[in-house]
């Protein structure tokens, strides 16, 4: 693979950065080299824009515009594959141009939604980006047909080379692009897109387009942005959520090296600005700050847990669905199974801490920021700077991790712009310390669960009541999502409706309900959002019920899934690959789980052993996924592997504890992250059915932990009902 | 004023002795491939080589670095990005977000320099950097590939 990259984000006069690849793909064999040569591919300065999605340069490089954010999940490459597939261009001559929200706004959002979350990057834009590629192809072919005065139907195209067999002529996209750009576009809605069976670029495990600069330090993340005359800021928000700044004494740090000034942000945070970030951080730590901590200071993990526990037996709920009469069926059952589970708050802990560089002058405002929602960042910039949207621009380097943290709120953009307003015309780079990042996240919501099941004399499940009690993301940040006090979002994956996150079992008497118990802790989406907790609750409880029924966990599930064939197919796929039922080495035990989220179906089998001292080892995990269409199987496997690490980290170590109203685990010494040594062997089975489009980045996390916990139960005979595992004695 | 030897070049640095080497490299020298992740030597995103040893630069003070110490950052690992570790990383498509990968690559390069044929246990012990995207499986594969191991089946 050869690839060259130019990053111009550090230069404010150039608005975008372009990745050009000369020969992507490559093989697994060693022997190729990564060139050090760098070839700028500036789409807006040369080449013809055939349509909004495709610019063709005279040297046949096809520049594909990308609106969604790249945070490691591979969407940039996948979207380029989809456009290139319909465009029929040479994949080895594809470059990408991540558009900015300012450009999108100026062209009436021709590139659509830029928000990247909910595993929607590909599935929510696949139709219009493919049509964009197809329209460009048709215009390029028409231009050639016009030039040769032949019917367009007589032309063929392969890898960007257009041929007319009858006259033995050929030309290339680069040669006809200028003429094509002047043609009226065909009606994109009338175009028939390719059958995936005929895909040549999409559907293949193409190498990522964005790897080379990640290997030699040349990739510029937002935290690396350096601008002429730039100053740096460190920030401290009141450690207690909801608390305020009472006072601070700037005179105590005025003598420190590089110090510029202190800026108070709203009524709750203090930033120190200095010539370097290290100077700013050092001065901030020396700044005496008095906080008015407020009512939140009385809260702790213990008080929050009590509040949730009370909700498990509340008589009213905040959203439910039911079939039959579960309470009666359970009361009348031959055997009753009951269990209570809990999961903690979790932080995202992206490797690149929150940061944003802002520059505000009287007639222009700009930020350089890692964001999952560049248009929300643009809105935040406009709001805080006071300048209209068309005077604002967001430069968006790829993210050093997102996982939901860098979505809607854009809190760090608000902060950076507020600071930059105090330094007109001077760029200000705000970086959060890891401690600040851990202290002021929008955490995965805390919750508890009670499961109650009734079995008949033959061990058949005749009644099931699942109750989730905990904090609501909608109540915190999206009040419109709570309708009449009801909020079904917290039951994600346990929904009755098909299509996105459907409950996969049929039970004659079923009650699923949610009880809202909010806290003073900010919450938000965390890779997989509520499927994570609900996957643990449902799938671990199902194993407890299967055990009480004296049935194999896989067979027990199968008997309940006849009405959910897509769920069942994926469960069967994972069981087959993992050789469920075949003997394992001594001491190794299996667990299984299935769940649905983000329009996709997931299942997992874990193989674990529990040592004499209770030491857990996860040896192997097999995951199966039906995401409908598999655009890049290599990147899907990468996402599945990554989801195992993200899920296992949460299972093994993840917890944000609250004492005196504030987070206490403020860095990786106490908020532990799984390392390579603990990574099991992961095998991915992709079973796309090609009759829908599902997500990839999030769906599989939610089956990782329940499969492991169920394997532990198989090993020890005891269920694990609370996380993280580091707090649990397994034997 | 301190003198630092970084990637074969000598730099004059004027800042306080207590400044972490990471922030000297990033803010004084202007090499931003070395990343800030935690500041307490936990995550390894700031890994550099000092006299051939992989070190976490966030926890080394400028005052503790000698002029004779040879510091290599990710930018100096190979002038053509053709170090075997970089080549293997590309072949296996290791990076996702990529933020931790400078440190991962520096750790792997240091491991292989001392131990050209590491076992899985050696890799477990040496590769302790944090990756939140979860590229660990591909890192293991790529280290084996860089070591010239023909077949890699993973731990079992």
Number of distinct helices of chain A: 16
So what's the CATH class of the largest domain in chain A?
Alpha Beta
What percent of residues of chain A are in strands?
15-25%
Largest interface, counted by CB within 8 Å of the partner chain's CB: A-B, 74 and 71 residues
The helix-and-strand class of chain B reads alpha+beta
| Oligomer type | heterodimer
User: Which overall shape of chain B is indicated by the principal axes computed on the Cα atoms?
Assistant: globular
Can you count the beta strands of chain A?
29
Question: Number of helical runs of chain B?
Answer: 5
Shape of chain A: globular
- How many angstroms does the end-to-end distance of chain A come to? 50 Å
Going by CATH, the homologous superfamily of the largest domain in chain A would be Aldehyde oxidase/xanthine dehydrogenase, molybdopterin binding domain
For CATH, the homologous superfamily of the largest domain in chain B is named as: Beta-grasp domain
CATH topology title of the largest domain in chain B: Ubiquitin-like (UB roll)
Distance from N terminus to C terminus of chain B (CA atoms, Å) equals 53 Å
Strand order of the largest sheet of chain A: 12-13-10-20-17-18-19
Averaging pLDDT over every residue of chain B, what do you get? Answer: 95
The profile of the biggest β sheet of chain B is: 5 strands, mixed
Please tell me the CATH architecture of the largest domain in chain A by its name.
Answer: 2-Layer Sandwich
Tell me the CATH topology of the largest domain in chain A.
Aldehyde Oxidoreductase, domain 4
Describe the structure.
The complex is a heterodimer of chains A (731) and B (156). Chain A folds into three domains: 44-214, Aldehyde oxidase/xanthine dehydrogenase, molybdopterin binding domain (Aldehyde Oxidoreductase, domain 4), CATH 3.30.365; 222-294 and 354-431, Aldehyde oxidase/xanthine dehydrogenase, molybdopterin binding domain (Aldehyde Oxidoreductase, domain 4), CATH 3.30.365.10; 301-346 and 443-727, 2-Layer Sandwich (Aldehyde Oxidoreductase, domain 4), CATH 3.30.365. The longest helix of chain A is centred in the first third of the chain and has 23 residues, at 126-148. By secondary structure, chain A is an alpha+beta fold. Chain A is globular and about 80 Å long. Helix content of chain A is 25%, strand content 23%. In chain B, helix 2 (84-92) crosses helix 5. Chain B has a five-stranded mixed β-sheet, with helices on both faces. In chain B, strand 3 (47-50) and strand 4 form a beta hairpin. Chain B has helices spanning 21-29, 84-92, 101-114, 120-126, 136-146; strands spanning 2-6, 9-13, 47-50, 53-56, 70-72. Chain B is of the alpha+beta class and 156 residues long. The chains are: A alpha+beta (731), B alpha+beta (156). Chains A and B meet through helix 15 of A and helix 1, helix 2, helix 3, helix 4 and helix 5 of B.
